[in-house]
Design goal:
This protein is of the alpha+beta class. The protein is built from 13 helices and ten strands.
């Protein structure tokens, strides 16, 4: 799709394409020069061909406003196309309704003739009439639904919500967890947190049918939890076991601790492996609480589970010894065993709702996930507790 717009009284043409697996905005001016900017980049290329182009800083006010105008024009054109499609569906549905109305009128007239001639209506005629009337009600309901969709799209065209850009998301996330925690995160985790923040606001401001499903926003939080909690623990406990307990290594060059196979190559570890190794019991979500679309009260949300018999005392002693010797901020946090196990298992339950087609991640569940990792108004999140 190509979209024409005006900026500073000059015409431009913009497209959005994929380049090197990244979204790239291309803006062509009336002289045939093209400004190409990839998503999230502060620099772009300008010229009549990529080979002969020069690099420019697009964070300045001129290029920033040009890009913002182009993106607004692109979004408006997308919405117009979606509105036109909805209007075509509405017109087709209204045409079907009109045809059904004509059928009802014809059938009603025939029945009236029979009634005058024979003073009775055949049972077949009554059934047909009732069936058509019921079908009309269904059609009318569908038309109302389509009309509401069109109204929503028109309202969205009139007042397009402000999108969250990459720089704003970085600032918000960094302010939330603090500079120290932010600097200790991997670049992968930093990016995924910002992606989740942007996607959350995108879903929040959207008018789509799947508006209540925040799974796409929650996926980034899952990846951060696995990268910052799961991976460091099992990578380092394997090194500890090789150094301190070589006699426990089996024929497959792996260790079995608490029913979990720990090996040099990255094993199939899940967040569910951690709580049982850290604590005898912990607090987690009730199953029926997660099925509710609205946030339940705290007293109906959690219960305590006990897994004390699942791990031997000797294996628990090994894990405690590892956490005492491990020089990593995560070790200090994990030594608060029941608290850490509770937070991790709650994250596990929220994470497990995301890949299942029959479940969705409701808004309150995403916000709870966010608070567990990054904190709320009065409580620190896991990342800040670990690195501060």
């Amino acid at each position: 799709m190509k979209v024409e717009f005006f900026f500073n009284k000059h015409p431009y043409l913009c497209t959005i394409t994929s380049h090197n697996n990244r979204q790239e905005l291309r803006i062509r001016n009336e002289r045939g020069e093209i400004l190409a900017v990839q998503q999230g980049q502060k620099q772009g290329l300008i010229g009549k061909s990529r080979k002969n182009s020069r690099t420019v800083d697009v964070s300045g006010s001129y290029y920033f406003n040009l890009i913002k105008t182009a993106l607004n024009a692109w979004q408006i054109e997308e919405l117009k196309q979606e509105l036109n499609a909805q209007q075509e569906v509405l017109a087709e549905t209204q045409n079907i309704l009109h045809q059904k109305n004509k059928q009802v009128d014809i059938l009603t007239q025939k029945i009236a003739v029979l009634d005058r001639e024979n003073q009775k209506i055949s049972q077949t005629g009554k059934v047909q009439l009732e069936s058509l009337e019921e079908e009309l009600k269904v059609r009318e309901l569908k038309i109302e639904v389509e009309r509401e969709k069109c109204l929503q799209l028109e309202r969205k065209l009139e007042n397009i919500p402000k999108s969250v850009n990459q720089e704003e998301s970085i600032r918000k996330v960094q302010d939330k967890i603090g500079d120290r925690a932010w600097s200790n995160l991997t670049r992968f985790s930093q990016k995924k947190l910002c992606d989740s923040y942007i996607r959350y606001h995108s879903i929040l401001n959207s008018f789509t049918v799947l508006q209540d499903d925040y799974s796409e926003a929650g996926l980034g939080l899952c990846l951060v939890a696995e990268r910052e909690l799961l991976d460091p623990f099992f990578k380092n406990i394997y090194r500890f076991l090789v150094r301190e307990y070589p006699e426990l290594e089996n024929e497959y060059r792996a260790f079995e601790i608490g029913g979990v196979t720990i090996k040099k190559q990255r094993g199939k570890y899940t967040l569910g492996h951690l709580p049982v190794l850290l604590s005898l019991q912990w607090d987690t979500f009730k199953k029926d609480a997660l099925a509710q679309s609205d946030r339940p009260r705290d007293e109906g949300m959690y219960h305590t589970v006990f897994f004390g018999n699942c791990v031997s005392d000797s294996d628990r002693q090994i894990v405690r010894k590892f956490l005492q010797q491990w020089e990593h901020p995560l070790a200090t946090w994990m030594r608060s065993a029941e608290k850490a196990a509770s937070a991790i298992d709650q994250i596990r339950q929220l994470r497990n709702r995301i890949p299942h087609h029959e479940d969705i991640l409701y808004r309150w569940q995403f916000e709870r996930f966010w608070c567990l990792l990054l904190g709320g108004r009065t409580k620190k999140g896991i990342l800040e507790e670990i690195f501060s």
